[in-house]
Automatic annotation (TrEMBL):
The UniProt record lists the keyword ATP-binding: yes
Species annotation: Geodia barretti
Any Gene Ontology CC annotation: cytoplasm
Residues in coiled coil: none
Alphabetical list of SUPFAM superfamilies matching this protein: Nucleotidylyl transferase
Limits of the tRNA synthetases class I catalytic domain: 3-275
A biological process term (GO) from this entry: cysteinyl-tRNA aminoacylation
Keyword terms: ATP-binding, Ligase, Nucleotide-binding
Protein name: Cysteine--tRNA ligase
Length: 288
């Protein structure tokens, strides 16, 4: 930690869908923290990633691909075009809410070499193993796993049950690199064959590149606490041996009609919906 300088990483948007005002409220939270620290005389260096690779989630794999690929196919566009479209929408929303732009918006797809290097380090250190062309993080190699989410024992197993994978040594182990299935278009070469990264490794690799082995503040939505941030800590501390983050700050879910705002719940509002209803987007900034 350098006095007067604060390093900050925010888990950014996934650019195959619009950000709703619940997502944006979490980015507002990060903006307020940054502005308060700046007003207090600090220099804040802020990184916000763009997730354009597609999350490696079991339900998407079972559905035959990830949403990014399916959206691209449906709209007849390339994946890059889709990502750029939704990233532009996100930046427009941030502008409407008067959110200061991050100093760097690193794109996940442009940091595959950094992710592979980190996976290689974890393999060398014995914190990861290969099975069927996939690379898994060995949760038993990291004694403090579960510390952030206070997620131990039964609760933890409940959380990972949906991702049951017979190749894992322990059901809690998570994917660092996934072998490409036949016919998959979005894939990269790796020392373990063609594949694509697991979701969590992108934030560890990009945070390391732009902020170093240890930094001050990491923000995200409360739904990122487990497994995303728990796994990020395990990867980064497993690879570098240092404390990864000094302070974690998570935004709670925004409720709409008494329920968490989520696409699946059908209660999602976008910034443009506020304008349609006659509200200035900046009014949202001051009311949440
Ligand atoms: Zn993240």
């Amino acid at each position: 930690m350098t006095p007067g300088r604060v390093t900050m990483y925010t888990c950014g948007p996934t650019v195959y869908r619009y950000a709703h005002i619940g997502n944006l409220r979490t980015y507002l939270m990060a903006d307020w923290i940054r502005r308060i620290l700046t007003a207090d005389g600090n220099e804040v260096y802020h990184i916000k990633n763009i997730t354009d690779v597609g999350h490696m989630r079991q339900e998407l794999v079972e559905a035959g691909g990830d949403k990014m690929i399916m959206a691209a196919l449906e709209e007849g566009k390339t994946i890059q075009e889709i990502g750029e479209f939704y990233a532009d929408c996100f930046w427009r929303d941030e502008t409407h809410l008067n959110i200061l732009p991050a100093h760097v918006f690193p794109w996940a797809s442009q940091h595959i070499p950094e992710m592979l290097e980190m996976v290689g380090t974890l393999m060398e250190k014995g914190s990861a193993y290969e099975a069927g062309g996939n690379i898994y993080f060995d949760v038993n190699s990291y004694a403090e796993y579960g510390r952030l989410s206070n997620n131990f024992g039964g609760d933890l197993l409940e959380g990972v049950r949906a991702e049951a994978d017979p190749l894992k040594r322990d059901p809690r182990d998570f994917t660092l690199w996934k072998a490409a299935e036949p016919g998959r278009d979005v894939k990269w070469d790796s020392p373990w064959g063609e594949g694509f990264p697991g979701w969590h490794i992108e934030c560890s690799a990009m945070a390391h590149k732009y902020l170093g082995e240890r930094f001050d503040i990491h923000t995200g939505g409360v739904d990122n606490v487990f497994p995303h941030h728990e796994d990020e800590i395990a990867q980064s501390e497993g690879a570098f041996g240092n404390r990864h983050v000094n302070y974690w700050i998570h935004g709670q879910h925004l409720l709409a009609d008494g329920a968490k705002m989520a696409k699946s719940a059908g209660n999602v509002f976008l910034i443009e919906d506020l304008a349609t209803r006659g509200f200035n987007p900046l009014a949202f900034d001051t009311c949440v």
